[in-house]
TrEMBL record:
This is o-succinylbenzoate synthase. Keywords: Lyase, Magnesium, Metal-binding. Pfam families: MR_MLE_C (PF13378), MR_MLE_N (PF02746). It comes from Microbispora rosea. PANTHER family: O-SUCCINYLBENZOATE SYNTHASE, O-SUCCINYLBENZOATE SYNTHASE-RELATED. GO terms for biological process: menaquinone biosynthetic process. GO terms for molecular function: metal ion binding; O-succinylbenzoate synthase activity; racemase and epimerase activity.
């Protein structure tokens, strides 16, 4: 495979409604897309970094900078080109390993090259990653609202639409009351979980243990990213399973968290862990230890969403992911919309991602584009 170059393209997409979490409110997404051009095909990657370093230390301008200055020159070097010619996308992580962190940028470039490679081979992401299902259950993530009645109206709408699992964002001051209200209104049978995005400390352990009575599937990332031992201590003080998100940035950190009993479940986000190939390693590791995993979401466009659906079709993804339909966040997606039917989303079967940006729609949301020849 000969890489001719990579295009960096920034798009700005308004959200259908504001999305509030414990770290901030999003009203639009400023997204970096990568297009890898090879002799045979074009492939797309989506960088999940946000505009601000509020979810993780990465942010979109930093990811553009590191791609331009370090990651792409390494791939374009004679050594990089030779390794990619030999092994394709499988060579990318090893080539970029000397550069610390920057996992969202690394994931995006590996994804674009993998998509180009698979399109050239006529093989789908699902087939390549090891998907065993042709559709995946669709869960939805519900933001923080000003009032409980507002929240209940929103949850009602998602249940009516067919979503099979509800995730409520929580923070200090917005936890027991909204969870109790959702349980009371919609009953004990609704699969329900909560996500704190690091908003608590271990001093809140007794308060968080009060969530146990609501029979939640899990509580996601209650404590800070680096507080793995705190999560292990919290796990001993509450019955609700602990799921880690921000803390798990690689298969290595997943192995440590599992060994320390810091989590019973792992949220796998390919962007956060450096790519779909590392995401698959975490899936394999968790399966070997008997832990359930599920696929997280970062408000992706159809590009990232299609790849996430393929990943979520691996056998160890036994819990519904944050993989909702395009219209959960975007009125108009840049690809053909990802749709939900009967609470599920179909795994794309076409070559590569199985979806492609629609040129006119893509152009309409593009704020800048830069071609970097190799
Ligand atoms: O369905 O794509 C989705 C959003 C799921 O809540 C969601 N993501 O912390 O998991 C999270 C949260 C998030 C969104 C984090 C955007 C960072 C950016």
């Amino acid at each position: 495979m000969k890489l001719r170059g990579i295009e960096l393209r920034r798009v700005s997409m308004p959200l259908v409604s504001p999305f509030r979490t414990s770290f901030g409110t999003q009203t639009k997404r400023d997204i970096l897309l990568l297009k890898a051009v090879t002799d045979d095909a074009e492939g797309w990657g989506e960088c999940v970094a946000l505009a601000d370093p509020l979810y993780s230390s990465e942010y979109v301008d930093s990811q553009v900078d590191v791609l331009r200055r370090f990651l792409l020159p390494k791939l374009a070097s004679p050594e990089g080109q030779a390794a990619i010619a030999r092994s394709g996308a499988a060579a990318v992580a090893g080539l970029l390993h000397p550069f610390k962190g920057q996992r969202m940028a690394k994931a995006a470039v590996e994804m674009a090259i993998l998509d180009a490679e698979l399109r050239g081979l006529g093989r789908s992401f699902g087939r390549e990653l090891g998907a065993v299902a042709d559709r995946v259950p669709s869960g939805v993530s519900v933001g923080i609202y000003d009032s409980v009645p507002q929240l209940l109206t929103v949850v009602q709408g998602f249940l009516d639409a067919g979503y099979v699992r509800i995730k409520l964002k929580i923070e200090p001051g917005w936890d027991l009351v909204p969870v109790a209200a959702v349980r009371e209104r919609f009953g004990a049978d609704v699969p329900l979980q909560v996500d704190a995005n690091t908003a608590y400390t271990l001093r809140d352990a007794r308060h968080l243990a009060k969530l146990d009575e609501f029979d939640l599937l899990l509580i996601e990332q209650p404590l800070e990213e680096e507080d793995v031992l705190g999560h292990a201590a919290l796990a001993r003080q509450m019955a609700t399973p602990i799921c880690l998100d921000e803390s798990i940035v690689s298969a290595q950190t997943a192995a440590a968290a599992i060994a320390l009993d810091a989590c019973q479940i792992v949220n796998i986000k390919p962007g956060r862990v450096g790519g779909y190939l590392e995401a698959r390693r975490i899936h394999d590791l968790a399966a070997a230890h008997g832990l359930a995993v599920w696929c997280g979401g970062m408000l992706e466009t159809g590009i990232g969403r299609a790849a996430n659906v393929a990943l979520a079709a691996l056998p160890g993804f036994t819990l519904p992911g944050d993989i909702s339909a395009s219209d959960r966040f975007y009125q108009t997606d840049i690809t053909e919309p990802i749709v939900m039917a009967d609470g599920h989303i179909a795994v794309p079967a076409g070559p590569g991602l199985g979806v492609t940006p629609i040129p006119e729609v893509l152009d309409a949301v593009t704020t800048s584009a830069e071609w970097i020849p190799f």
